[in-house]
Amino acid sequence: MHPSLPHQAAASYQTLPLGPLPDTRYPDPRIEVLDKRFRYKQGNAAIERIANGFRWAEGPVYVRAGRYFLWSDIPNNRMMRWLEEDGHVSVFRAPSNHSNGNTLDRQGRLITCEHSGRRVTRTEHDGTITVLMSSHAGKPLNGPNDVVVASDGAIWFTDPGYGIDGFYEGYKAEAELPRNVYRLDPATGQASVVADDFARPNGIAFSPDEKLLYIVDSGITHGGPAHIRVFDVDGTRLRNGRVFAEDFAPGLTDGLRCDIEGNVWCSMGSGDPKEDGVRCYAPDGTLIGKIHLPETCSNLCFGGLHRNRLFMTASTSVYALYLDVQGAQVP
Ligand code: MG
Question: How remote is the CA of residue 261 from the centroid of ligand 1, in Å?
Fold first, then answer.
């Protein structure tokens, strides 16, 4: 484990104009309908930039109880918070151990993946932080990336280890474990490997009925695939893994969420700038809609009191868009 270093002051935020993007008109032409099944465009709503001034925004989660939105600013080793009430942006946690993915458990507690902490943590209601898992088979995790909590409380997370690739998003180190996907029972502390054949497992989300689990492989960053796979959830195991969407190269997808109708919304970026943003796939794997952003998008989540606002972490900014659909899960 790398010794903890003092947190370094980072660039200020809100350095670019916030609010609707330039040349916005209703309906927003940046939302592209590719199939009539994509009926989620809110005619009189446009993409808004709600915060700016970060180095690599990731790990979005909306906290309904407090009406705030949290995300990670990984290279700056901090987590940020945006208040829905007045748009105020401030530091939520620094240092954050280069936090990445965030979600809430079924009690509303924050679950966080840490690159340089190389662990998954839970922030309790009293503010203390509990380490849920930092090793497997006696070896340190590579660096958890993204996480989802099932309705039975089990925590499913990916461990690709991007944080140990260098000193930008964590601290350089050798991987001691395969780049696995894990299921952790926080009640017992028991963890099992549920997938071990990913190049770089990344975003992870359940279908609304929890019968399916979608997992991104962003291995193209290291010569592997750029696709989403889907698995049948069989109790504590995964079965019948197959490719769900594979049309991302030379770019990649990173994070994803499902809506209540079972559509898969995923980030898109790092390839053709015209493709930067978000994609929406129907449950049968058909690409039915796109949201075009001016920056590479890393991840997204549904939020707002009615889960009908899409929050998108994208490079140096966070964007938001009201949609005519609701996210599948509270976080
Ligand atoms: Mg990720």
Answer: 23
